[in-house]
Amino acid sequence: MATIIGAIASSHTPTIGFALDANKQEDPAWKPIFDAYLPIRTWLEDKRPDVLLMIYNDHITSFFFDHYSAFCLGVDDSYRVADEGGGPRPMPAIGGHAALSRHIVQSLMTDEFDMSTFRNKGLDHGIFSPLSVLMENDGQRWPTKIVPLQVGVLQFPIPSALRCYKLGQALRRAIESYPEDIKVAIVATGGLSHQVHGERCGFNNTPWDAEFLDLLEKDPIALTRLTHADYARLGGMEGSEVIMWLVMRGALSASVRKIHQSYYLPSMCAIATAIYENEAAPMTESDAAHHLHMMGSQLAGISRLEGTYPYTLDRSARGWKVNKFLHSLIDAGHRATFRADEDGTLAAADLSDEERRLIRNRDWRGLIHYGAIFFLLEKLAALSGVPNPAIYAAMRGQSLEEFQKTRNQQVSYGVAAPAGN
Where is the Extradiol ring-cleavage dioxygenase class III enzyme subunit B domain positioned along the sequence (predicted)? Predict the structure, then answer.
């Protein structure tokens, strides 16, 4: 089973990435930042984790307020560097451990955490600022994979400190019940004290930062009793993002061993780092087996329902490209291009030959078997002038006439707007 080997805490201010990209490693003003990460780099080189589960918040780069979730887990195979306005930093994409991600989502949902998931989104300085000083990359790849957990801390209401801590406890169950023998390190990012907006801009509180680090190590429950207003008062409005560190702390044992800690306040944001190691036994095999059973209980027996295919994260991953193409048909311009030159549009799309064939042939049942979701087939049908009952008939291997005979009313309909609209 998977093992949590320990945890890292790190600020994620873009200051860190700027200093690295500008080769400021020996500049007296910047050198303390890089010196603080040397023990962490050594620890990572010694422990060699297979996966870093990185807890961060996006800075309105890849996640806008049209859909803003409390907890959103990446389930992709790869994550690129996001463009934050001046072009992406010169670093390669990092691989994602998609199988572990899918397992974690299922486990957290089992534990009553209503998770969102994401794919095909770049990661901003919340991930890549600390990652770029935690380990080297060779320009093509990184030495480990990640699972990114995005916490929505910028638009209120946001999760409480206690909710973050409880998520960490559930996250521990999720990781330790994963069947593969892999080593996982938890990385919490953000903080410490800072405020970047309003007349209070530039606020810092070094004594509070020291108290927070002490409580995080020795009495995290005390930190769960603080409100968002408490965190803003003590550490600045943006500094209240340190509640994300409680996700990491909740995933560790009650007693931890701190083997490194640093603190430096160069300008706007207090930069802190730490390493914690567990002092608890891992999940037993019987406990893991029980948890896996609970994870599977909601869909237990569904495979016996003939012709029924639950749209799981695994199916979503398999059908991602074809679903993404079909989803693009909600754009009027793309529909016009598709109508004008279907073969050319399919040839230019990021699709496999099999996916192109399924779409070209309007193989409705084949698309479902492949991993398409029905509600995107409706989009293609609307464009093609095919009514919904014709899709239903194809699913059952019947003609439209045969299918209609099984209905109380022989009506025809679809999702297309009225002609001329």
Answer: 7-267
68 with 26, same domain: the answer is: yes
pLDDT in tens, 24-66: 999 999 999 999 999 999 999 999 999 999 999 999 999 999 9
How many angstroms separate the Cα of 338 from the Cα of each of 10, 343, 414?
A: 48, 8, 19
Residue 271: strand pairing partners: 264
Q: 269: which 2 tokens? A: 């944001």
The structure's pTM equals 0.95
Q: Say which of 12, 97, 194, 291 is annotated catalytic.
A: 194
Does the pLDDT at position 421 exceed 80?
no
Tell me the pLDDT tens digit for each residue of 71-110.
999 999 999 999 999 999 999 999 999 999 999 999 999 9
**Do residue 353 and residue 268 come from a single domain?**
no
Would you say 48 and 142 are in contact if contact means Cβ atoms under 8 Å apart? no
Q: Which of the following is catalytic: 59, 125, 290, 369?
A: 125
Does 321 lie in the same domain as 172?
Answer: no
Would you state the pLDDT for residue 282? Answer: 85
* pLDDT, tens digit (0-9, with 9 covering 90-100), for 365-407: 999 999 999 999 999 999 999 999 999 999 999 999 999 999 9
Question: Rounded to the nearest 5°, which phi and psi values hold at 328?
Answer: -65, -15
CATH code of the domain covering residue 352: 1.10.700.10
pLDDT at 162: 98
Residue 369 appears among annotated catalytic residues? no
CA dist 102 to 112, 160, 244, Å? 16, 25, 21
* Active-site residue, 327 included: no
